[in-house]
From TrEMBL:
It comes from Erpornis zantholeuca. InterPro entries: Timeless. It holds the Pfam family HTH_TIMELESS. This is TIM protein. One of its GO terms (biological process) is DNA replication checkpoint signaling. PANTHER family: PROTEIN TIMELESS HOMOLOG (PTHR22940:SF4), TIMEOUT/TIMELESS-2 (PTHR22940). GO terms for molecular function: DNA binding. One of its GO terms (cellular component) is replication fork protection complex.
Amino acid sequence: NKKAFVELLFWKSPATVYEMTKGYNSLQEAEGTTRSRVPPWTPQEEQELRELYWKYKEVEGGDVIAAILAHLPAPGRTRRQVVKQLVRM
C-alpha cells in the first residue's frame, strides 16, 4: 500500500493495526468465524422471547432479563444474547 505511511502518522487502535497488517476487512472475516458458533434465533424462539418480554416488562422491582432467562425454554442463551436480540427486534 503506497499510502500506508500516511496512516502511520495517526494513533491506531489494536483492531486498526490488525487490519493494516493482515489486510483490510480481515478483522470482520475473523469475527465472522467466531460468531458462527452462536446459534441463530429461530422464529419460534423470537416469538417466545417477545411473549416473555411483554409478560415480564411491567414487573415492579424485578430484573426483566433475569425473568426471561429463567423461563426461556432454549438452554444456553446468555444474558447478552437475549438483550442483543431484544434490541434488534
